[in-house]
Amino acid sequence: MIGVDVSIDRDGPIFRPLLVHAAVADLLDEVERDVAHAGLAAWSTNLNASIRHPTPYYETQIHAEHLGDGWSVNDRGVIYGPWLEGVGSRNQTTRFKGYSAARRARQSIEARIPQITAGALAKAVRRLGGGAP
After folding, report:
1. How far apart are CA 13 and CA 116, in angstroms?
2. 6 lies in a domain?
3. Has residue 66 got a pLDDT over 80?
4. 132 or 100, greater pLDDT
5. How far apart are CA 120 and CA 21, in angstroms?
6. First-to-last CA distance in the chain?
7. Domain span at 85
8. What whole-number percentage of the chain has pLDDT above 90?
9. Residue 1, domain member (yes or no)
């Protein structure tokens, strides 16, 4: 007869609720930060590729900031930001339809979420004692 004995180390980090909650909170913070910074980089890249005669002011206003519940990537409310993006009321009455730089950045980031977050997830798994033996 073949038998299998299983024992679980109940003293490991996964069985310490406070450690698990802290690791998950840190993971979420790091993932949000990484995604925000990737979005900032993608938005800037899209603008650099689209604007024919760039002036540095608008690009210096685009930033990622930590808010109470998460991160925001925005242009600090620059008055002509919606026009550059193509969502302003003036875009309906002029030939310029906007660059859609922020929209394209969001779409590219959404497609790359697994790659962007892989490092933070691996770090959290190692913190909880996981990984290769």
Report:
1. 26
2. no
3. yes
4. 100
5. 15
6. 29
7. 15-127
8. 62
9. no
